[in-house]
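Researcher: We're reviewing a set of sequences before deciding which ones to prioritize for further study. For each one, I'd like a predicted 3D structure that I can look through quickly. This is Potassium voltage-gated channel, subfamily H (Eag-related), member 3. If possible, include the structure in token form so it fits the rest of the review sheet.
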Amino acid sequence: FLDTIATRFDGTHSNFVLGNAQVQSLYPIVYCSDGFCELTGYARAELMQKSCACHFLYGPETSDRSTAQIQGALDDRREFKTELVFYKKEGTKFWCLLDIVPIKNEKGEVVLFLVSHKDITDKKTEQDPEQGPDTDEETGLQVHQVSRPPGFNANRRRSRAVLYQLSGHLQKQDKSKIKINNNMFGQKPPIPEYKVAAIQKSHFILLHYGTFKAGWDWLILLATFYVAVTVPYNVCFIVGGGHD
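Model: Here's the predicted structure for Potassium voltage-gated channel, subfamily H (Eag-related), member 3, in token form for your review sheet.
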């Protein structure tokens, strides 16, 4: 299952990690793409079993509010996306568009987290640094607009389609397994019926348990004893006496 997910999403999200949703609070990384290793500068062996919230990418300018929201989204097993500053292994900071997508199995349980990372540093630098965030006239609160790189929505829709295909494929496999198990164990196979036809006896066949056969056997036995006694007697006494 993990190999299938990794293979399918490796073409849609070049920079992503897969986290194990079964381990509470930690959600360790069980797979990371080559693009993510190139983006962050970490080797795959260094990332295994670390949190998919990517605490190792946090730095001085990383928003505490965003990190708390990331952890909350993982705990609640829900989708989440935000923009925040991450730091590479050598210390270089970059703007990242983070997207968390929970992956469910055929039972509807969240088993994995797909956490994709998009480097949007160039897009952020193109924006006017002096232009501050917009302010809501009614509430007076600052409104931060989340910008997305070109093609982000298409990649997101494509990833959703892959998820639906995988879910449907797993459900079909589960139904086929249940059907096979029911046929093997749930319902007893029909017992074949064997019909025994009546044996038609011929009048010329002597049965071994018949009266005639028993009398015939006794006759043969008596004849055998007669021959066994009379032949030696005749040879020894009658034939021998005639020569004398």
